[in-house]
Amino acid sequence: MSYIFYFIIIMLVPMYFQYKVKSTYNKYSRVKSTSGKSGQQVAEEILAANGITDVRVVEGEGFLSDHYDPTKKLVVLSPSNFRQPSVAGTAIAAHEVGHAIQHAKGYSMLKLRSALLPLANLGTTFSYLLIMVGAVLTGLSAQGGGIGTMAIWAGVILMSFAVLFSIVTLPVEFDASNRAMHQIEKLGIVNAEEYKHAKRVLSAAAMTYVAATAVAIAEFIRFFMMARNSD
Length: 231
What we know:
mainly alpha, three-stranded mixed sheet, single chain, 231 residues
């Protein structure tokens, strides 16, 4: 029964929320915003309204590739969101500028996430490798068991940084969405109905981060128990 529950968390939950965000985006990307402003124009308007002059808005590549790059101070919008005046594009552009506002104001959780990024990358790259090597060594011989156990624990420790990064990402993303909704309402970029639609887009996107965090925690618990059992 526990394996069924684990499978649901690891596979089905992320798949559902990925489907949800794509279907929600596709629906509202076809709804033209009454402002007639492209995502680029929305982003630049919010940046200007907040006195942020050192961040550029550029066109990226790929479907839903939108992000904020704090190292280069770039708001990168996918082609459709960059060029077209849609409710979905407005919401996503405002969200990415929300991260730029966090950066400009020195938002503490964004600083923490940035500090954790190198360790999280190490965890993502090497944790599974160490755990697999450790499991093989443990299974081969009693002599290799000690080394294998150490390798598994090392992998689990590295994995914990990636899990922590996922957890810290949640308040960062929710805060960026809250800032986005406040900005598009305050600046009159959307009307009351469009505000509701934009909120649905950002809420659907936020749930993908919740799902990813749930998966990361479930994986960590599984390998933590493996490490304990190998002692």
